[in-house]
Design a protein that fits this description.
alpha/beta, OB fold (Dihydrolipoamide Acetyltransferase, E2P), Rossmann fold, 3 domains, 7-stranded mixed sheet, 10 helices, 23% helix
Length: 447
């Protein structure tokens, strides 16, 4: 416990009765006590409940339900026995079809409040599997000496400790059903207390687990790992330091996972620690929506900002005259180039650039583009937006994993840069969680 924490006043231990007035952007219920906003896990609008404080800050507080006095009609029983303890999910208490409606309402509210922009047309939500969809994850590993057990999974909700779980319903079953087996495997190794995490990368066919090791694995350890991999039809790798140190077990071939875009005749290769979308079904639908909306032809020159390994770049290049992809991570840029070559796509260029910095001296930044796609991190794209004054694209598609920064940036595009919002909508990339994936289309205002 830190000194700062130890000096805080003890939290009140008497339950407080409140009525939930709204949902926060992360899916928590919002209530007010003595003028202070309280964020309460698993609480839904209209519900009356009693809660206990779990944290009190200067501007807000957090709490947990101790007695639910009235139930929202949206409330359902969580499917996972670990829900509420494990921090991997936060929305299982709401039916999946209602989750996406809530996220859509949140998107509309964020656009109004933060961007000062009304959404003229709502895109129908993109939906897919509610369970077993997650193919990328970083799972924690912890040897608990008192229990003589190795925990594998995700951290507890609002705590740094690993949750004691034996399965995960949102993870692809190839891994989600094997958490106990993985814990038993690691518990049998000589370096069981020297493994902090596992990087999960599941392709269309291949499953690769990169095990972070703080000490070299012995021959006996490698033999146990190899036997497990053979039994469970997966590839186990060891990672000594950074992502570039991920290597197969001795004597084993390197397995490169892949995912395909069947509608576009494209196959992507990626390495375990590289960013890819976690939900393949929604990713395919999302790319189809982008391609259909941009209506690309041979006269189009397209700029793909925050392009990653070319997830949008390559399918756009199949339709456009020329596409330039920009990404801040050089290894991803190198891999994007490899993927272009792998798919025989020659009308693309990829460059590494920090899009939060001045890019005016880059040659690619001084070209003209008819259409631009952005797919930034949670921080959004506000630093690069001033360059749109020069580029003046006819259309902009913005894909976002954070509705707050999308709304902020939409306000800049509409209120400062001469664009109009045509439509926006949500995509169910992360069912059972509060994460909101969204997409918006902008066009130049007619003068």
């Amino acid at each position: 416990m830190s000194r700062t924490r130890s000096r805080r006043k003890p939290l009140p231990d008497t339950p407080i009765k409140v009525t939930i007035s709204a949902l926060a952007h992360d899916g928590r219920g919002v209530a007010h006590v003595d003028g202070k906003v309280i964020f309460i896990d698993e609480a839904l609008p209209g519900e009356e409940l009693e809660f206990l404080y779990t944290d009190i800050r200067k501007d807000y507080a957090e709490g947990k339900i101790v007695n639910l006095l009235s139930r929202s009609p949206l409330r359902v029983e969580a499917a996972c026995p670990h829900y509420g303890v494990c921090g991997g999910c936060s929305f299982q208490h709401v039916a999946p079809e209602e989750q996406i409606k809530i996220k859509q309402d949140l998107l509309v509210e964020q656009f109004k409040r933060l961007g000062k922009v009304e959404i003229p047309e709502i895109w129908p939500p993109l939906t897919g599997p509610h369970w077993g969809y997650r193919r990328k994850a970083r799972m924690g590993v912890k040897y608990v000496a008192k229990k003589d057990r190795v925990l594998v999974g995700f951290r507890e909700r609002r705590h740094p400790y690993l949750a004691e779980i034996d399965s995960c319903l949102v993870m692809h079953p190839k891994v989600g059903t094997q958490l106990l087996a993985l814990g038993e495997l690691i518990g049998a190794l000589s370096l069981r207390d020297k493994i902090p995490q596992i990087e999960v990368a599941i392709g269309d066919e291949q499953c690769v687990l990169a095990i972070r090791v703080l000490e070299p694995a012995s021959e006996e350890d490698q033999a146990k790992l190899r036997a497990f991999a053979n039994t469970h039809e997966m590839s186990l790798c060891l990672q000594a330091k950074g992502p570039d140190t991920i290597t197969p077990l001795e004597g084993e071939p390197e397995i490169i996972p892949t995912y395909a875009l069947p509608n576009h005749g494209i196959e992507f290769k990626f390495r375990p620690a590289m960013f890819t979308q976690v939900n393949y079904e929604i990713n395919r639908q999302m790319i189809d929506r982008v391609i259909e909306t941009l209506d690309l032809n041979g006269n189009d020159s397209v700029l793909d900002l925050f392009c990653g390994l070319g997830n949008f770049t390559l399918p756009m290049a199949k339709k456009a005259g020329f596409v330039v992809g920009i990404e801040g991570d050089q290894p991803l840029v190198n891999h994007a180039k490899e993927n272009a070559k792998h798919n025989g796509i020659n009308n693309v260029e990829f460059y590494a650039a920090d899009l939060s910095k001045d890019i005016s001296d880059h040659a690619w930044a001084n070209r003209n583009y008819t259409k631009i796609l952005l797919d930034p991190s949670r921080a959004g794209a506000s630093e690069v937006l001033p360059h749109f004054k020069k580029w003046q694209p006819e259309q902009i598609i913005y894909v976002s994993c954070n509705p707050s920064t999308l709304a902020r940036d939409a306000g800049i595009l509409v209120n400062e840069l001469g664009y109009q919002l045509v439509k926006a909508g949500v995509m169910d990339m992360f069912p059972q969680t509060g994460h909101v994936e969204s997409i918006a289309l902008f066009t130049k205002k007619l003068k």
